[in-house]
Structure formats: structure tokens, C-alpha cells
Amino acid sequence: MVTDWIPFEDGRYSVPEAFLMAAGNAAVELQNPYIEIFTGRTGKRWLKGGSLVQNLLMVELMEESDELDILLNAGEDFGFLMQSPEIQAGKVFSPLVRSSLKFMPTEPWQALTPAEFRQLKSALKLISPETC
């Protein structure tokens, strides 16, 4: 998706916190998340991102809902909600294995104030290997 709403320069940025969320606030914490901003040949800006995820937890999350959102804390009061991004993930289902997850927005993300981010984060019901 072409994006003119990205407040960052071209580059790859580590994201301190990111969560994959389903309906009912069920969520999985993403490991080593990042976003990448780049300018295409026509001068339009694009965003994509990635992380590691325990696939078994993602499968558990998808039992809650087929529609998933991503909550990102990009640091320095930059919080974002990415609704229904395009998601690609590995297909390894061993309980302890993590594989890569890639995402790309399908619409502009929603900028969040620090208070809005904290409110959404505090409402999350994290799924972990212990809760599966």
C-alpha cells in the first residue's frame, strides 16, 4: 500500500513493543519487531514490517478471529494501531519454534497518544504457551 502518512524517514527501525491482536483483545506478543520505510521508484513511500512469532500461539489467536490487528509502540510516544494488515507467517507448529512474520498495512495506521496506547495495551489478554 502506498503511504503518505508515515512520520519517519526511510530506514529500518526496531520497535520496542508490538502485539498481534484479535477480537476480544486476545493477543500475542511479537518478538524482535521492526518496521521498514522506503521510497519506491516513483517517489511514493511504503511501509512493511516483521518480527518473530511462536506460530502455535498465532494459531491459537486465530481461533478467536480471522481478522488480526497489530498494536505498535515505536518509542518516543509513537504508538500506532494497524488494522487488518496483510500478514505472512511461517508454517512451523512446534510449540517452542518461532518463525518470521511479515506485515504490510492495507490502510493508513491510526496514530495513538501514549494514553491511548497504554489503554489498549492494558486491555490485552496475552496468549502464552502456559495459557494454550
How many DSSP E strands?
11
Strand count, sense and barrel status of the largest sheet are:
6 strands, mixed
Please identify, by name, the CATH architecture.
Roll
SSE string: EEEEEHEEEEEHE
Overall mean confidence score, pLDDT = 88
The first-level CATH class name: Mainly Beta
Number of helices: 2
Shape: globular
The strand order across the widest sheet is 10-7-6-2-3-11
**How large is the radius of gyration?**
15 Å
CATH topology: Pnp Oxidase, Chain A
Summarize it.
The chain has 132 residues and is mainly beta.
Descriptive key words:
single chain; 132 residues; mainly beta; Pnp Oxidase, Chain A; globular
Report what the structure shows.
This protein is mostly beta strands and 132 residues long. The chain has a single domain (11-122), classed as Pnp Oxidase, Chain A (Roll). It has two helices and eleven strands. It has helices at residues 55-62, 114-123, and strands at residues 11-14, 17-21, 26-29, 31-39, 45-54, 69-73, 79-82, 86-89, 98-104, 110-112, 125-126. The protein has a six-stranded mixed sheet, with helices on both faces. Strands 1-4-5-9-8 form a five-stranded antiparallel sheet. The longest helix has 10 residues, at 114-123. It starts with 10 loop residues before the first strand and ends in a 6-residue tail after the last strand. The model has no long low-confidence stretch (mean pLDDT 88).
